[in-house]
């Protein structure tokens, strides 16, 4: 039994994911999900290890993505759930594009998010209650979309607790 333990440890070391760059993978998933007629995402190359070198992405001193500035750049297509993997993201600015589909509930995993600007797109469906988990959120702008239903109670509670600005 003791002889199997080192072999098990060795095998478990090799079972790690092939891509350790979860943030780069998340951003590249977004690039694949949108049409980019103006070529603003051309620098988002999955063969480059560091997404901090990509245009419209800003990183902190630890090379973690903290900001996406994609407002008014002509994108169409949909947001991807992988955006929820950008754990240090503070600003998600994708306003005034032609994005369609739903707001991914996975965005509710972004605990450091301060600003979520999705206004002036063509997003549809309901507002995910998971956005109420965004404890650092100060600004939530969802106006001028095709969203239906009421603002979830979780988000209203967040607004009252944090004094956030909500424009739906």
TrEMBL record:
Keywords, sorted A to Z: Leucine-rich repeat, Repeat, Signal
Matches recorded under SUPFAM superfamilies: L domain-like (SSF52058)
Residues spanning the signal sequence: 1-20
Superkingdom of the organism of origin: Eukaryota
Keyword Repeat: yes
Protein's UniProt name: Leucine-rich repeat-containing N-terminal plant-type domain-containing protein
Residues in Leucine-rich repeat-containing N-terminal plant-type domain copies: 21-60
Pfam families recorded: LRR_8, LRRNT_2
Record's keyword annotation contains Ubl conjugation: no
Species of provenance: Carpinus fangiana
């Amino acid at each position: 039994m003791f002889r199997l333990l080192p072999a098990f440890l060795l095998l478990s070391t090799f079972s790690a994911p092939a891509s350790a760059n979860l943030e780069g993978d998340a951003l590249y998933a977004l690039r694949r999900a949108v049409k980019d007629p103006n070529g603003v995402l051309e620098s988002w190359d999955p063969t480059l290890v560091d997404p901090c070198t990509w245009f419209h992405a800003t990183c902190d001193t630890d090379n973690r993505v903290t900001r996406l500035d994609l407002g008014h750049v002509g994108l169409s297509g949909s947001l991807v759930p992988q955006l929820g993997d950008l754990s240090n993201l503070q600003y998600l600015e994708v306003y005034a594009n032609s994005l369609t589909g739903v707001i991914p509930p996975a965005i509710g995993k972004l605990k450091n998010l301060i600003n979520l600007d999705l206004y002036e797109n063509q997003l549809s469906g309901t507002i995910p209650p998971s956005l109420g988990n965004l404890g650092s959120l100060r600004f939530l702008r969802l106006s001028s979309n095709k969203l239906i239903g009421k603002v979830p109670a979780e988000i209203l509670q967040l607004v009252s607790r944090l004094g956030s600005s909500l424009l739906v």
